[in-house]
């Protein structure tokens, strides 16, 4: 009995029970489609996360001031004013492997242009801030060396701020006000979208570090602090009195493998510079971006695997359905099997036919499921606003699953049919 004869006989048998064959294949169809959609969504999410991480930069260490303390009351992280420009310069000059060292202070306020206004956050930054954060300029060229040294009244806008204040117009050369301080726009940052912590990365304006210290921080303090109040260390009001204070130091390391070494060196250096006694608590905190990135990547990968596993359950259920129906088919066709054996069909031919029927159901359902899965993934991307990444490897994997399902769940019914005794089969009353 040739392969074509086996397939012809299997097709004839399935056509005789067409509706039952379709319903049997339905489990495989749903399983394959679910696997493709779920895995594509998982991979799309992973790809989107990878892009966010690449924009953030994984070879980074963030150094923050610790929290301030006034009696039993502690402020938030970054309020202790324990970091200075000198600390940043020491990190830059004394620790090998360091590529960039960015310092910054921050605050918030209302920016105004003509009749438009927008509440945003500002950051006073040094020259290394842009390369450390992997920013690019969509318009303009950013700050000059003179702007940094002379506390120039200049500003670089994030895309969100530009859109809210200027719409589609080019803002470069125009003057905006932050509180009462006029600032000339010298550049616009390229959009980044959602940041690593879920905030809008483009809702920001940058000014030179000294501009933030001399002009913005005192103005903010005067507007928010009563005349009799004593400002907390590290607050906007405290910045002018400690002119070299910074709230954050961002360190870009040249090689990822040097991150752990540089982190240890920074901790040791700052403890020495701040004269922290052995066993005493640090007045700063070092955060390894790579560790956070690794955790998020692993979590996303785990979720992708979980989605695929949940979808695969449908495929297993479909395979069990195939095995169940094929066992029923063997029971219904015992007499037919006996007649075929009586006219010369051997156990291998009988087994091959039933296995071929299972394979045809599984493969047919698999191909329909692949088509539905691809269509479902595209619809999820278009109308569901889900990140979807279609990979041909997923399609090939789904095809392999359908073949494996037919072989695995069809083997036992086929083997049972092949092992029937011809005489007992002929005596069977259907």
Tell me about this structure:
There is one protein chain. Helix content is 55%, strand content 18%. With 430 residues, it is an alpha+beta fold. It folds into two domains: 3-53 and 296-427, no CATH class; 60-254, no CATH class. The strands form three sheets. Strands 5-6-11-8-10-9 form a six-stranded mixed barrel. Strands 2-3 form a two-stranded antiparallel sheet. A two-stranded antiparallel sheet has the order 4-12. A hairpin with a 2-residue loop joins strand 2 (69-70) and strand 3 (73-74). Helix 2 (18-56) crosses helix 11 (347-383) and helix 9 runs parallel beside helix 12. It is elongated and about 105 Å long. Mean pLDDT is 79; it is low at 70-76 and 224-242.
How many individual domains? 2
* Major β-sheet profile: 6 strands, mixed, barrel
Structural class: alpha+beta
Percent of residues in beta strands:
15-25%
Strand order of the largest sheet: 5-6-11-8-10-9
How would you sum up this structure in a few lines?
The protein contains 13 helices and 14 strands. It has 430 residues and is of the alpha+beta class. The protein has a 6-stranded mixed barrel. It has a two-stranded antiparallel ribbon with strand order 2-3.
């Amino acid at each position: 009995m040739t392969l074509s004869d086996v397939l012809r006989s299997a097709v004839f048998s399935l056509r005789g029970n067409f509706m039952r064959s379709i319903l049997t294949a339905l489990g495989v169809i749903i399983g394959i489609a679910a696997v493709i959609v779920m895995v594509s969504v998982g991979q799309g999410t992973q790809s989107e996360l990878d892009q966010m991480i690449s924009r953030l930069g994984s070879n980074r260490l963030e150094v923050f001031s610790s929290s301030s303390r006034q009696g039993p009351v502690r402020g938030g992280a970054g309020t202790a004013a324990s970091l200075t420009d000198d600390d940043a310069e020491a990190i830059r000059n004394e620790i090998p492997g360091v590529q960039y060292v960015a310092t910054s202070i921050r605050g918030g306020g209302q920016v105004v242009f003509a009749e438009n206004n927008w509440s945003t956050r500002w950051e006073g930054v040094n020259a290394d801030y842009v390369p450390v954060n992997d920013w690019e300029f969509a318009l303009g060229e950013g700050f000059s060396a003179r702007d940094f040294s002379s506390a120039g009244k200049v500003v670089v806008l994030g895309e969100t701020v530009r859109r809210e204040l200027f719409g589609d117009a080019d803002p470069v050369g125009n003057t905006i006000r932050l509180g009462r301080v006029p600032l000339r726009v010298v550049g616009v940052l390229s959009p980044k979208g959602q940041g690593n912590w879920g905030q809008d990365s483009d809702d920001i304006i940058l000014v030179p570090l000294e501009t933030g210290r001399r002009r913005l921080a005192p103005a903010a303090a005067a507007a928010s602090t009563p005349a009799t109040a004593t400002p907390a260390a590290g607050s906007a009001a405290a910045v002018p009195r400690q002119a070299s204070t910074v709230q954050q130091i961002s360190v870009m390391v040249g090689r990822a493998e040097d991150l752990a070494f540089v982190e240890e060196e920074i901790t040791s250096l700052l403890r020495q510079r701040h004269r922290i006694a052995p066993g005493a608590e640090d007045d700063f905190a070092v955060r390894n971006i790579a560790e956070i990135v690794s955790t998020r990547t692993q979590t996303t990968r785990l979720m992708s695997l979980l989605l695929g596993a949940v979808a695969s359950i449908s495929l297993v259920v479909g395979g069990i359905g195939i095995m169940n129906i094929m066992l029923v088919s063997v029971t219904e066709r015992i007499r037919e099997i006996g007649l075929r054996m009586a006219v010369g069909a051997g156990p291998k031919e009988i087994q091959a036919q039933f296995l071929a029927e299972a394979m045809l159901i599984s493969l047919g359902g698999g191909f329909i499921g692949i088509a539905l899965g691809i269509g479902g993934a595209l619809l999820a991307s278009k109308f569901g606003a889900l990140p979807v990444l279609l990979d041909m490897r997923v399609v090939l994997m789904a095809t392999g699953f359908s073949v494996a399902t037919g072989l695995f769940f069809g083997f036992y019914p086929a083997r049972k049919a092949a092992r029937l005794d011809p005489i007992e089969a002929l005596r069977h009353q259907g």
